[in-house]
Amino acid sequence: MASTPTRVWKSLGRPMATRKCEVGLRFDGTMEQLWEGFGGGVSEMGWEALSSVRAAERARALNTLFNHDEGCHLQYMRVPVGASTLALGDYCLDDTPNDLTMKQFSIARDKDRLIPFLRVPLLRIRRCKVIASPWSPPAWMKEQAGQDCGRIIWNPMMLEAYALYLLRFVEEYRQVGVPINHVMIQNEPGSGDRRPGCLWTGGQLRDFIRNHLGPLFSRKRGAPKIWLGALDSPDYSAQAVTVLNDPKALQFLAGVACQKGGEEILARIHKMFPDIQLMHSDCGVGDGQNTWEQAHATFGTVQRAIASGANTCLYDNLIFPANGRDLEGRGRNSLMVADRAGGTVVATPDYHVIRHFSGLVDRYAVRLGLEGAWACHAAAFYNEADESRVLVIQNPDPEDRRVVLEDRDRLLALPLSAHSFNTIVL
Fold first, then answer.
1. What's the confidence (pLDDT) of residue 162?
2. Are residues 22 and 41 in the same domain?
3. Backbone CA torsion sign across 9, 12, 15, 19
């Protein structure tokens, strides 16, 4: 299956056997990490945009995203805990100052937008998992009150209250039929210019997990798994290693999530802590233009994350309004764009990137090692169910290319159109 700027997801038939010539790609014989799947983020802006189009178009768009046979075959959904950069405005789930016992905690706002959005994949995707990710604690919990950055007030009572805040989110969502499987600590804890946002040092992340959130969740039956992240610092020792080298904190962690640019951190964690799960939590790039060139950058981000040991990749933004702006005033790329004026929803180039990676790769497939000049443009997986191997490869060049794949005792010529994404099943 091949996609170009003028033709998407089209069958090119069988790769042709060729005679001995220069090999550009081969399987190196190794079997790497277990692959968990792709996912995406739901948001208030996304649901608002989707709700603005007619019902038939909305149903078609949702099918395009979530249908197993025709769509992206997503497995994970990420939901913000309170406001995010893709919310319609600043808010939190308990805005009563000093409500340390969370008596005023409420998800009433989420019931109008985020929860209806989440129910769509939960009804369509078998064993769909939901990840909760906070962008900021409530403003009254921070040294500098407000949804802009700042830091959480560092005293035991406030930290216990914030741990309870996250637990209440899990419990309230469960009561409305949306189970939360994973909870992250903080989205981009090293970014001081996020809105909303909150700064955490590696030591603070360690202590909060070890002394507050971990013990609280461990006492609750069926509590979700805790993830360190989503980390945004390229400094491995600043955040990741500080937490992972602490045995008491590590016992509560299921995995580590890194934002874009964190592929090197993923690789180092994978080498030093091979048993911990890894997630690339923001594999999208771009400024809302949704160009084919930007899609090739997204492909590269995903490929590097998978090669670095990631078990899961999330695309930050499933649906966004045409010409929309987030809370920080930025345009955002997305998998689908909803045009309120035209009443339509269209798939973007990034959608086709994710579909090429995810559409024919099973959950719990095994990544296969590759070598050769084209290995940096490709990823390969083994599907145990039908014993197939799936090769995903891009051609970012403006010219057609012919790549020779060495597959055991045969050579296969892979014709790759200019600026194309390709999925080959062997």
1. 98
2. no
3. negative
Which neighbouring-strand residues pair with 338? Answer: 321, 345
pLDDT recorded at residue 234: 76
C-alpha span between 352 and 420 (Å, rounded): 10
- CA distances from residue 251 to 201, 221, 225 in whole angstroms, order as listed: 20, 17, 11
Q: Which residues of 114-139 are buried (b: 16+ CB within 10 A; e: fewer)?
A: bbebbebbbebbeebbbbbbbbbbbb
How many structural domains comprise the chain?
Answer: 2
Q: Which of 319, 343, 360 is the last residue of a domain?
A: 360
Helices (H), 187-227: 202-208, 214-218
- The pLDDT value given to residue 146: 55
* Residue 199, amino acid: L
3-state helix/strand/coil string of 378-421: EEEEEECCCCEEEEEEEECCCCCEEEEEEECCEEEEEEECCCEE
* Same-domain check for residues 188 and 78: yes
Q: Mind giving me the DSSP string for 320-384?
A: EETT---TTS-----SEEEETTTTEEEE-HHHHHHHHHHTTPPTT-EEEEEESTTGGGEEEEEET
307: closest CA among 273, 276, 278?
Answer: 278
- Give me the long-range contacts of 360-363 (CB less than 8 A, separation at least 24): 360/1, 360/390, 360/423, 360/425, 361/35, 361/37, 361/73, 361/390, 361/392, 363/35, 363/36, 363/37, 363/75, 363/127
pTM summary value: 0.95
Here the CATH number for the domain that contains residue 354 is 3.20.20.80
Q: Which tokens go with 254?
A: 């299921």
**Token representation of residue 362:** 């099973």
Domain of residue 379 covers: 1-34+365-426
* Residue 154 and residue 137 in contact, taking contact as beta carbons nearer than 8 Å: no
- Helices in 92-227 by DSSP H: which ranges? 114-124, 156-175, 202-208, 214-218
For residue 147, pLDDT beyond 60:
no
